[in-house]
Amino acid sequence: MTASAAVPLAGSPTEPFLRLAGLRKAYPGVVALADFSMDVHPGEVIGLVGENGAGKSTLMKILGGVIAPDRGTIAIDGVPYDALTVGGSMRAGIAFVHQELNLFDNLDVAANIFIGREPRRGGLLQLVDNDKLHSTVKPFLDRLGANFSPSTLVSHLSLAQQQMVEIAKALSFNSRLVILDEPTSSLPIAETEKLLQVIRGLKAEGISVIFISHRLNEIVGVCDRVVVLRDGRKVGTLEGDAINHDAMVKLMVGRDLRVAYAPPNIARGAVALSAHKLRTGTYPHREIDLDLHAGEILGLAGLVGAGRTELARVAFGIDSAHGGHLRLDGQPIRLATSADAVKAGIFLVPEDRKGTGLVLDLTITENISLPNLPAYARNRIVSRDAEAKQAEVSKRELDIRAADLGGRAASLSGGNQQKVVLAKWLAMTPRVMIFDEPTRGIDIGAKSEIYKLMRLLADQGVAVLMISSDMEEVIGVSDRVAVMHEGHITGILDRDQSSEENILRLAVGRPLH
Amino acid sequence: MLKKDLGLLVLIIVVGAVVAIINPRFLSPINIANTANLVGLFGIFAIGQGFVIMTGGIELSSGSVIALLGVIFVDLIANRGVPWPVAAAIVLILGFVIGLVHGLLITRMRLQPFVVTLCGLLIYRGVARFYTQDGTAGFPFGVNFPDLEWLTTGRTDLIALATNGAARSIPIPHSFFIMLVLAAIMWIVLHRSVFGRYLFAVGKNEEAARYSGIRTTRVVIAAYIICATLTALASIFFAMYTRSILPSGHGNFYELYAIAAAVLGGFSLRGGEGSIVGVILGTVLLQELQNLVNLLGIPSSLNFAVMGGVILVGVLADQQFGAYRERRRVAEAARQTAPAESAAAR
């Protein structure tokens, strides 16, 4: 730690735990953070919002000691530092829970929480003292209201439970500030509420929380104060009653802009894709019957694990059906591989953009041409000109912000990566488009564009199925909402019925009325 | 040509120059022709190994396949009177089938490539030894196949041919020519064709390739078929080169030469990276090192140690150089924006 000697101020109750003053960080060609100041008081829950690239990650890296700011000071308990180190940040009691969980799913909960710090016994043998380990971990889990034991394998936990493990790990370091980086982006509604409850619990214990989320409703629900970032600058702070959806969006984008939901389409076409008594491998005894019409956006809501992604995988030929069948335009079709689905015009924008949506190490151009490569080839030899031409067209049509289409897809931001995934399919002729969590981790600007695109596709007669755990999105975008619970459809709501309450009831398997 | 390939070429030339200075026989026509022959023989199946490594897999049975198919080929033409083109076709088909079986076991049965091909290594070696009852397979006295011998072990002096014998140069072995032709074809397949692009995509991220509608299992199976078929072709050349095959020793460790050539040539064992030029240059370097051991009077027992040492140093140097270039790139980028920054501040 590059501590400059200073007289520590007395730790009065009003004294902030953390005081950031005039932080600045510039990277080649871009100022990531400029003149940023903020206080964090004990027991305060601060929401940090901003579009992607607004400077949130830079701020987090500075707090985590990963990078040093160019200017400014970080004062912890009144002791100012020019920069933190990773160890210093940890010792000061700052803990992170990242969007991507860093757990070993082959180990149990206790082993994960104390990885690298296991209590030992047996002298030279250095055996892990499992009894002590488990008894040490138990109180942390209890504090969070966890309903699983320290000896549960992490692979057996739900995402929300895994996040609790991460938070328990943070607590085990005696953390005073827990920073949650988009913790809810992969959680369904019911689990999200659990997590928000945990945050309130931390607050009650006097632990500060910085909560980063794209889901503004959650921010409204849990935060005492909201700091809005735009282009590396703090553009506003909202407190108490002033925290509302519109005010945050206005600050984030610098103008009045609600996420634009295009008006719904009343006149839908014939049934394009239908599932008949379809059974997936995860729920081999539950049957799915569902009609997807041409020209409509059908939202598919439900809790994580309800079998929505499994349905998408079967419809795209990744998994084979366990029973029942699919029909396209009334004709039964057999999808032995994803290639069959692509040939039939059934395309999937998968949930995991980086793992399955794109080959990150190929170029943007190569990713766009990948599903339809023979079309850019003559005598099986790929024409790079033809590929490049299509990439240029896609870039223009979808407004992909990339300096160089010959650069790796990994170099793009999340929103632009998602546009490349879309470009792959839109360069062909889709008949059925399945979107699985299409806007997860994407900023508001790009979100609106993707919604507009979905509507455009539907208007052109494409049948659109949108799997989403974002309530606002499901209700705002869909013409109809189908809700799944444990492997089957529990109800289909028309637009005038699709309320948060109705969807939730169906999602947990209860009747509507 | 990639920068990596260029670096390898420079290394080959530097090592060659040093050896030539110490022992001028290195550049003698007979030595060059012999080395070229070995480069041809090893290059043919190293290319195949490259295709398998590109998918993130590995083929450990190449040496045993060379022994088994070599024994079968010699037996067919020398003892059973099968015309050699038919025998060659049979051997190539057997190679195809071996590749197909490996590919199916790896994709459909989801076995690990290492395990499948390790079993192959043991099985084919055992079958080869059983086939000859652990004896030597060879040609009876006086049995000749002029066409086949010309094709596989013949040499042609290109300059002499062009000038009708007026000028002479080094006679180049046909195995080397055939390897070059195969390399050119496989270069197009890997670096320009639809299938080649699929290979890169599957090697880098098989799941994402599958989610793009690519039949990834077919791509992987095809890679193993290409590898085993090229290895079968190489087995014919090796059989004609040695003329007698002791199945317990013939082709031992050859798969490791191919893997080493691919790694030297820039292939990543994780898949998705590599080039045909690289694997050929890797083969050249390995044969140059073998030759070096002989010509510089280094005890031939040290052969493997020299090869292992050079590969280790080469891979280390490549890794360090890459890290150095990355550091310089970052520093350069920082320097370029610094003036702009201070100007903006003013």
From TrEMBL, chain A:
<keyword id="KW-1003">Cell membrane</keyword>
<dbReference type="GO" id="GO:0005886">
    <property type="term" value="C:plasma membrane"/>
</dbReference>
<dbReference type="InterPro" id="IPR003439">
    <property type="entry name" value="ABC_transporter-like_ATP-bd"/>
</dbReference>
<keyword id="KW-0813">Transport</keyword>
<keyword id="KW-1278">Translocase</keyword>
<comment type="similarity">
    <text>Belongs to the ABC transporter superfamily.</text>
</comment>
<dbReference type="InterPro" id="IPR017871">
    <property type="entry name" value="ABC_transporter-like_CS"/>
</dbReference>
<protein>
    <submittedName>
        <fullName>Sugar ABC transporter ATP-binding protein</fullName>
    </submittedName>
</protein>
<dbReference type="InterPro" id="IPR027417">
    <property type="entry name" value="P-loop_NTPase"/>
</dbReference>
<feature type="domain" description="ABC transporter">
    <location>
        <begin position="270"/>
        <end position="511"/>
    </location>
</feature>
<dbReference type="InterPro" id="IPR050107">
    <property type="entry name" value="ABC_carbohydrate_import_ATPase"/>
</dbReference>
<feature type="domain" description="ABC transporter">
    <location>
        <begin position="18"/>
        <end position="256"/>
    </location>
</feature>
<keyword id="KW-0762">Sugar transport</keyword>
<keyword id="KW-0067">ATP-binding</keyword>
<keyword id="KW-0472">Membrane</keyword>
<dbReference type="GO" id="GO:0005524">
    <property type="term" value="F:ATP binding"/>
</dbReference>
<dbReference type="GO" id="GO:0016887">
    <property type="term" value="F:ATP hydrolysis activity"/>
</dbReference>
<dbReference type="InterPro" id="IPR003593">
    <property type="entry name" value="AAA+_ATPase"/>
</dbReference>
<dbReference type="Pfam" id="PF00005">
    <property type="entry name" value="ABC_tran"/>
</dbReference>
<keyword id="KW-0547">Nucleotide-binding</keyword>
<keyword id="KW-0677">Repeat</keyword>
From TrEMBL, chain B:
<feature type="transmembrane region" description="Helical">
    <location>
        <begin position="220"/>
        <end position="241"/>
    </location>
</feature>
<feature type="transmembrane region" description="Helical">
    <location>
        <begin position="292"/>
        <end position="317"/>
    </location>
</feature>
<dbReference type="GO" id="GO:0022857">
    <property type="term" value="F:transmembrane transporter activity"/>
</dbReference>
<keyword id="KW-0812">Transmembrane</keyword>
<keyword id="KW-1133">Transmembrane helix</keyword>
<dbReference type="Pfam" id="PF02653">
    <property type="entry name" value="BPD_transp_2"/>
</dbReference>
<feature type="transmembrane region" description="Helical">
    <location>
        <begin position="60"/>
        <end position="78"/>
    </location>
</feature>
<feature type="transmembrane region" description="Helical">
    <location>
        <begin position="84"/>
        <end position="105"/>
    </location>
</feature>
<feature type="transmembrane region" description="Helical">
    <location>
        <begin position="30"/>
        <end position="53"/>
    </location>
</feature>
<keyword id="KW-0472">Membrane</keyword>
<protein>
    <submittedName>
        <fullName>ABC transporter permease</fullName>
    </submittedName>
</protein>
<dbReference type="InterPro" id="IPR001851">
    <property type="entry name" value="ABC_transp_permease"/>
</dbReference>
<keyword id="KW-1003">Cell membrane</keyword>
<feature type="transmembrane region" description="Helical">
    <location>
        <begin position="176"/>
        <end position="200"/>
    </location>
</feature>
<dbReference type="GO" id="GO:0005886">
    <property type="term" value="C:plasma membrane"/>
</dbReference>
